[in-house]
Amino acid sequence: MALRLGEIVAALGGELHGDEGQIIERLAPLAAAGPEALAFLSHPKYIKELAASGAACVIVSPAMREAAAARGAFIATPDPYLYFAHLTQLWRSRHAPPEGPRIHPSAVIDPSAQIADTARIGALCVVERGARIGEHTVLKSRVTVSEDCVIGARCLLHPGVVIGADGFGLAPHAGAWVKIEQLGAVRIGDDVEIGANTCIDRGALDDTVIEDGVKLDNLIQIGHNVHVGRNTAMAGCVGVAGSARIGAGCTLGGGAIVLGHLELADGVHVSAASVVTRSILKPGQYTGMFPIDDNAAWEKNAATLRHLHGLRERLRALERATPARSQPNTP
Amino acid sequence: MALRLGEIVAALGGELHGDEGQIIERLAPLAAAGPEALAFLSHPKYIKELAASGAACVIVSPAMREAAAARGAFIATPDPYLYFAHLTQLWRSRHAPPEGPRIHPSAVIDPSAQIADTARIGALCVVERGARIGEHTVLKSRVTVSEDCVIGARCLLHPGVVIGADGFGLAPHAGAWVKIEQLGAVRIGDDVEIGANTCIDRGALDDTVIEDGVKLDNLIQIGHNVHVGRNTAMAGCVGVAGSARIGAGCTLGGGAIVLGHLELADGVHVSAASVVTRSILKPGQYTGMFPIDDNAAWEKNAATLRHLHGLRERLRALERATPARSQPNTP
Amino acid sequence: MALRLGEIVAALGGELHGDEGQIIERLAPLAAAGPEALAFLSHPKYIKELAASGAACVIVSPAMREAAAARGAFIATPDPYLYFAHLTQLWRSRHAPPEGPRIHPSAVIDPSAQIADTARIGALCVVERGARIGEHTVLKSRVTVSEDCVIGARCLLHPGVVIGADGFGLAPHAGAWVKIEQLGAVRIGDDVEIGANTCIDRGALDDTVIEDGVKLDNLIQIGHNVHVGRNTAMAGCVGVAGSARIGAGCTLGGGAIVLGHLELADGVHVSAASVVTRSILKPGQYTGMFPIDDNAAWEKNAATLRHLHGLRERLRALERATPARSQPNTP
């Protein structure tokens, strides 16, 4: 696997200072790159690694031109990280092995499902009755798309994904549960990526909706009738309960939980492991997570926490008991 | 897909005020229902939506009769939500497409497994040696039921479910781990629903047991030798560690964790994302979760939390230092 | 299924006091063991159960010899729990049914994949191009090993495992996300066990690495370029974000989260449901988890927690206001 620097800038642009004929055999992190590798400097804080790097060439921002030139060959481009992303795509496309069959013979596809001509369905996938798979969408191995669910164009579904299992709908009756049949489906837009073993449930009456450009990591649970806005991204192990409505351009950190029927405005960012218990209508970063500590310290603080409300009451009593006139440091 | 109002009340009961011949083409939420739709009012707080709804007919409780009559056709029934649940089942049964094969030819079923005559096994399922699947139970696609595991009657297992993988049993030895073979199995009662990609591990010596009527959402982990009592329900992403014993009629919110070897009495309700670290022997609602806040506020409070025990000590010192006689507001 | 006590000590050692010809029909927990069962006493605190046990024979430590002899037959061995682990392995090996085909005909294996002669590949597995599976490794049903990923010897991968799905790599651009192709793979050492539906993502440039002897429970997410050291064990539902480096001999409790790019030293133990937000360079037990309480108490304390920083400020003000001379109990 190799590309010349000249081929790279011809395909991706950027201002090359160095030998167009230089052969690049791999992409590598700055610190680990050898003389056959192309690396990138995403942030000025890694500038020390730049000087020390043995890379054949480094992708840098224009502001880093001088430091890069002092080291050797470089490509200057306004957004090195974005350039690197495009470079990984170029690398993959140039080195992709011959593709297997468009629809793997082991996949189980209902005759009524509509699979676009350019879509690819991997080994041991299941596409049920009435489902639709858009152009250039790829289902890796062992993906289930249940009946009547719709996947847009250029989506990528990783192994083990389950689209359109029943939402968790139950009516209590006489101490037991009566199933509410889930009559909706799932509608997924274009350019959506869904990580391994992630589940998106079908709606109860209306559909669960994932808009264009949404990116979901692995082992995420999306409940019935959730609506996820454009370009929102969620890290692994997130859970979103039924009927939550999440805006566009949001990010949810790993293991975050969003309770049901809540609304998150566009541009809300939830930190990892935080639990959203109320609607958040203002963009911003939100967090709720017990800080980790050595176990002994945690035990003391956690035990005290269970009396926190009482501490406040005692503080109030003290405040009442403390005459203002004796507070020498108070302005 | 359509049903007449007359057919619905003939099948499900309820007191119809309106035209028996009225054709219903879909079930819909109250706010979104058009003149072809049947909706329901589950709670008096939505009464404003009732008046504004364009539904052909609305299911209401007897107390709402007058308000419903002012709007148009209605069905009165003591528990509209339960009626709606039964209605979704009627709707599904009346509109179900012709069923595929009872056992999908792509499923891999050991000759010694016992599959009830009325059970259905979906595409690409695996049912191992000695497993038993009860009457009217349905395995959707890509479900694994491991050797000797037993599934009762009328159960529904969604795609990707794994029943009977090994429990996590390890004995430490010389810095490494020695596997404890898991010699038990999993026994699942009747009327159990298990969500997509949920896992229930086999027992170490005895069996892991899920009693009748339990409902598990997606991506739940049930460890070895856990016992889950009748009609308990768990939302997505719950984890229950080994040998926990959970009573009947409990609910666990999404992302809740139950540590190993604990006992939860009947009727214990654990809030989402809460961690059960001790047995809970009294019914009730239990919660433990850091409240979410904007990140800056969280940072301040979390940093202070790490000194909470010290704050209590300081408060105590102040209380000792503050003469009771100077507390004017104290009774 | 049966073994004589004599066969057991011949295979596993230990000092038998009792009849070598005694037939053992099952292994059982101490409290539940009947006259056909062999049980073990792992900890002196269960000594009451020892006296009451109806087991045919009990495995005990030498210190328990006297108490065990008072009851009946026993096997003395320095580490009864370890002995029990080996016994479960003996039991399984003696009672294993005839094995099915080494590579199940329903598995989809790329011709370029290298499967060791003694490896076993279960039903409906997928092993992609260039992947390698080591000697005596077992893939249970429905496991995916993606292209170029390497699994060592004597590993056990449970149903639904996904090795080598794409890491979650995205560059932001103009409000959307540009995919970073994941060009690395996954390298898994020897003697690794991976639980049902667990996912280990492939690296972005370098490989994700799981060292020898690592044990992962079910539904765990391991991000790209994570490095997990020898003999580290993780309980169910753990999430480890990209590029985290976890040492050897660590344990992570169920539902714990480790954020990206962090380092955990050897011998770090993280309690269940705790979130690691900073590198931990010192061995020890670490915890961060809101203590569970009845809901009403939690509500009060959680509400107060949101003002904790302010409470500290008020406490400081009081401390300033309280003259040291009036503190009668201060030394």
Automatic annotation (TrEMBL), chains A, B, C:
Gene Ontology molecular function terms on file: N-acyltransferase activity; UDP-3-O-[(3R)-3-hydroxyacyl]-glucosamine N-acyltransferase activity
InterPro entries on file: Hexapep (IPR001451), Hexapep_transf_CS (IPR018357), LpxD (IPR007691), Trimer_LpxA-like_sf (IPR011004), UDP_GlcNAc_AcTrfase_non-rep (IPR020573)
Annotated catalytic residues: H224
Reactions catalysed according to its record: a UDP-3-O-[(3R)-3-hydroxyacyl]-alpha-D-glucosamine + a (3R)-hydroxyacyl-[ACP] = a UDP-2-N,3-O-bis[(3R)-3-hydroxyacyl]-alpha-D-glucosamine + holo-[ACP] + H(+)
Ranges of residues in domain UDP-3-O-[3-hydroxymyristoyl] glucosamine N-acyltransferase non-repeat region: 24-90
GO CC term, one of those recorded: membrane
Entry keywords, A to Z: Acyltransferase, Lipid A biosynthesis, Lipid biosynthesis, Lipid metabolism, Repeat, Transferase
EC number: 2.3.1.191
Alphabetical list of SUPFAM superfamilies matching this protein: Trimeric LpxA-like enzymes
Recorded metabolic or biological pathway in which this protein acts: Bacterial outer membrane biogenesis; LPS lipid A biosynthesis
GO biological process, one term: lipid A biosynthetic process
EC category name: transferase
Keyword Isomerase attached: no
Quaternary structure note: Homotrimer.
Family, as annotated: Belongs to the transferase hexapeptide repeat family. LpxD subfamily.
The name this protein goes by in its record: UDP-3-O-acylglucosamine N-acyltransferase
Species annotation: Xenophilus arseniciresistens
Gene responsible for this protein: lpxD
